[in-house]
Each structure stands twice: as structure tokens, then as C-alpha cells.
Amino acid sequence: MQISYENFEDVHLASSVSENILALRTLLGNTMDLNVMDIEINGVPCALITIENMVSASAMSELIFRPMMGLEGGEADTHEKIMDFITSRSLMTAERIMVYTFGETVLQLFSGFALIFVEGENTAAALGIQGYDKKSISSPISENNVMGSQEAFAEVIRTNISLIRRRIKHPALRFEMTQTGKLSNTDVCIAYIRGKADEKMLAEIRRRISSIKLDSVFGAGYIRPFLEDDAAKRLFSEIGVTERPDKLCASLIEGRIAVLVDGTPFIMICPYTFAQYFSSMDDYASKSFFAWFLKFIRYFAFLLATAFPGIYLAAVNYNPEMLNMKLLANLSASEKTTILPLFSELIIIMLLLEIMREASIRLPSAVGTAMSIAGGLIIGDSAVKSGIISSPLLIIVGVTATASFVLPSFNQQTTALRLAFIMAGGFAGFFGITVCTVMSVANVCSQSFSNVVFTAPASPLIKDQLPNAFGRKSFMRMARDDTKMSDLTSPETPRRSGGR
């Protein structure tokens, strides 16, 4: 049998067990983790093939060895009867798949299935007895909350599917499994609720995933650019990412579509609007009036994190008359003690801030926290005393850094916008700030996903959804609203004309 890396996916299995094993060893380069167990049942040669540490030894003993031993001396004395027993007349495992080609054989082997070959049969039975090591369900890392669920998604895609199914016990919840990555063959699952998710959007997501031609896919970040519209030109992403099962289930019920990738605990949500980035599960555990206040805090923190340093720079350098006289005198006295102009000070300290933030992320958590505290205190105090930066500027940077921590999902965007506003304010004052603001708003308003506008429900205006964009509806009002179809994804929703 001629088999190679180029054609193995379409090569059919032979009826000879030894020929299939030889071809499989040749294809896999006689790799050490390929386990082949030759057995004979009532005079018929058979083989059990597994990958080391991918199957459960106890499950293999109870669900495969014990039933197969019961065949010895019984009526199953031909290859047809043995295969019929394995596939139709036994309760070995819940997952049983018939494989016909070497492509299917390799895929099932590396997915934790045990394959049984029977002499005279040109097919094999794949039995699901996965037993590979995996991380247990833990608490969320990037989306902490006080009163919500403390469970986070894991790296194993089937575990994540069970977390979703446990929360939405309805037959309309659907999961579609596919593979992507020419070498990695990574499992990718599309989750949605039939009747709520838009069919055209679902078809578009299927098309985009199937068009991915990467050799490997090891996380959501590999697939996310393929799902977005003009990802390189957009400042924000129309695809949200979450590690919280409760947040994902709420999005599914709203009519959105989730994309799960094996090997990562972060799940993508399609589509995602600008207002959703400011929501938290704690909003639904608080009083309605306090949820409005929290939303205001997040929006205000976003403005501080992006524009505050640039506005400060523009006011001091170009429009000092806007400041109080006493404040202006203090700022002037502080700036006289420094050796650099204000613009250079701000750029240097912002770069130092990003260096410390990156170091605190990459180091182990205990060391990273201590390093960020010590680095901030030592560097900040020394910089002020040496006259490199002024004390008021240190306060501005501290406020900006604290505000950026309120929205960790916006970290990339706030960093880029902050530097853009500093450049604009430093070179052109408030005129530059205005131009930068207009360009940022224009970029946000131009975004859409499958014709769902990124700025909804503010533009186009959807009155019924505005309370959830700037606060939240009361649960009594939610109970009265029609939940048949999400307002953002239903066909009646105002969408961008022309489409993409």
C-alpha cells in the first residue's frame, strides 16, 4: 500500500490487519507513543491501537477488554460477527465511530479514541475512552466578579461544551464540531440556539472558519482575525472573548453565536458590540440603580485611560488659561525643576508604565505583584527627586493607569489610543485632540459584523436596548419583554445598508 503525507487522508483502509498496521507505522514514523496490541478472537486476528496517555487505562479494561474476552468460545467466530458485536450488539462506549480512511484513523487516534481492526474488514471501530490529563475547572482570571459564578472554562473543548449544556437545558441549543489547521487538526465548535441565532450570520461564520488555511490553530487568537471584517483596519474587535460560562450563555440566549477552540479557555462571541465591553455579570447581581452607576464609572474610566494624559498635555502647553491660577502656578513650579519638556516626560513615563505592566504579567503572580509595587514606588520616587518628571505628572499617570485596570479587555485599545492622544495633544493641542477624537469615533462607527452595527443600540437607535447599554433593565421588565429573538440579531433590526 502506497501511503504518504500528501495522500493519506483519502487512502482507504485495507481488509488486512497487518497491512493496515504496517501502513500506520510507516505514516507515523514508528513513533514511540503508538501502542499496537495484537489479539486473536476465535481464530480471527484483530488489533487494538491507541496512543499512549491519550486513553484511560481503567476504561479500556472495563469497556473493551472485558467484553472482548467474553467473545472467546462464543458464536462470534467470523469477522462479520465480531465487527457486528463491536458496533451494534454491545455497550462498550457511548462514542462509537466507524472509520474508513487513514485520515479518519489518525484523527480519531490523536483525539483519544481506541481503534479496533478486524481481519477481513476494511473498516475500523473507533471507541471513545479518552483519558488524557487536563486542568480542572478553576476561577476566572481576567473577568473577576463578586456575586456571580466562580467557574471558568477549561482547555478541553468537550468540558466547555458540558459547562454550557448544564446551564441551558433546552433542545434548541446546538453544537457543530469541525476541524481547522492543516497540521494541528484542532477541534472548533460553533454553539448557538436555533430560532434565536440569525441563519445568515451562522452560515457566514461557517464559511469563514472553513476558509482558514493555517497549518496550526492553538487558540482563539488564530481564528479571530478570520471572523472579523477588515481586522487590520479596525481599532476595536467585533468578536468578543470570555472565559465565563454564565456570560457566554447569556449571549447565546440573546441570539449570538459562540466559537469554541480546543486548547484554550477563552471562547469567542459573535457579534460583539461596543456597549457589551462595559457590561459585567455583577451588573445583574446589583440593584438596578447601582448598575447604572457602575456603567457610568466604566465609561468614565475609559475616557480617563485614553484621553486624560493628552488633554492634560494640550491644556498645559497650549491653553494654560483654562487652568486655575493656583494650579497653574504649582504646575509651573514643578515643571521648572525638571530637565525635560512635558511632552518628553509624558512619553517616557508612559513607556515605563507599559514595561512594568508587561513585566508584572509575564512573571509569576507573586513575584510580578511585588515587582510592580516596588518598581512603581522606586522608579516613581527616584524620577521625581532626580528631576526627570514632575509630581503632578506622576499623579496624572497614576490616575490613567488605575482607570485602565477597570476595563482589562480594552487594554490594547486604551494603550494605542492613549499614545495617539498624547501625540495629538503634544503636536497640535486641542485641535489635535479633536481630530484624534473624530478619527476614533469614525473608526468605531464604521465597524459591523455581518451587518450588525458595532455601535448598536445607540446608532442605529434601538430604544428597547438602550437601558442595557448604559445600565440594565429591571428583571421585572425583562420578564415582560418578548425573548423570542434578540433585538440585535433579529431580521427586524436596523442594519447597515448595503451589507458586506
Protein topology:
Elements: H1 17-27, E1 34-41, E2 44-51, H2 57-69, H3 79-87, E3 96-99, H4 102-109, E4 113-118, E5 124-128, H5 157-167, E6 173-180, E7 186-193, H6 199-210, H7 220-227, E8 240-242, H8 245-253, E9 257-261, E10 267-270, H9 288-318, H10 325-336, H11 342-362, H12 365-386, H13 391-404, H14 411-445, E11 448-449, E12 452-453, H15 466-470, H16 475-480
Antiparallel strand pairs: 1-2, 2-4, 3-5, 4-5, 6-7, 7-9, 8-10, 9-10, 11-12
- Whole-angstrom Rg: 29 Å
Average pLDDT reading: 85
Total of DSSP H or I helical runs spanning 4+ residues: 16
Tell me the helix content. Answer: 40-55%
CA distance, first residue to last residue: 48 Å
Which percent range describes the beta-strand content? 5-15%
Uncertain spans: 483-500
The sequence of SSEs as H and E is: HEEHHEHEEHEEHHEHEEHHHHHHEEHH
Report strand order across the widest sheet. 1-2-4-5-3
Main beta-sheet annotation: 5 strands, antiparallel
The computed structural class is alpha+beta
Shape: elongated
**Count of individual beta strands:** 12
